[in-house]
Automatic annotation (TrEMBL):
The lineage of its organism: Eukaryota, Viridiplantae, Streptophyta, Embryophyta, Tracheophyta. This is Large ribosomal subunit protein bL20c. The gene is rpl20. GO terms for molecular function: rRNA binding; structural constituent of ribosome. Signal peptide: none annotated. It comes from Veratrum taliense. GO terms for cellular component: chloroplast; ribonucleoprotein complex; ribosome. InterPro entries: Ribosomal_bL20 (IPR005813), RIBOSOMAL_L20_CS (IPR049946), Ribosomal_protein_bL20_C (IPR035566). GO terms for biological process: ribosomal large subunit assembly; translation. Pfam families: Ribosomal_L20. Binds directly to 23S ribosomal RNA and is necessary for the in vitro assembly process of the 50S ribosomal subunit. It is not involved in the protein synthesizing functions of that subunit.
Amino acid sequence: MTRVRRGYTARRRRTKIRLFASTFRGAHSRLTRTTIQQKIRALVSSYRDRGRQKRNFRCLWITRINAVTRENKVFHSYSRLIHNLYKKQLLINRKILAQIAISNKNCLYLISNKIIK
């Protein structure tokens, strides 16, 4: 069987991996085997943390809405506000509610008065 020269293919594959890992520190950016391991690890972390980021932002929005509602006696709690929003079929998502709560509290009062009446 004839010998296959893999220099070109292997070099292309390694340079692709090195470009991905160029910002890593130490051997993680220089040695091929550790670079491959770190690339796998980085991709796993980024996949996992994309879901975690959504969770964290939702938690942040809920905290902001709850703080404003308790502070200004709009409702007794966040959960009551959301429950009444759903009952009145005013479907405003939590991101927008959090922005309203921070930037314009009067608008939040108007929304809560709409719910109460």
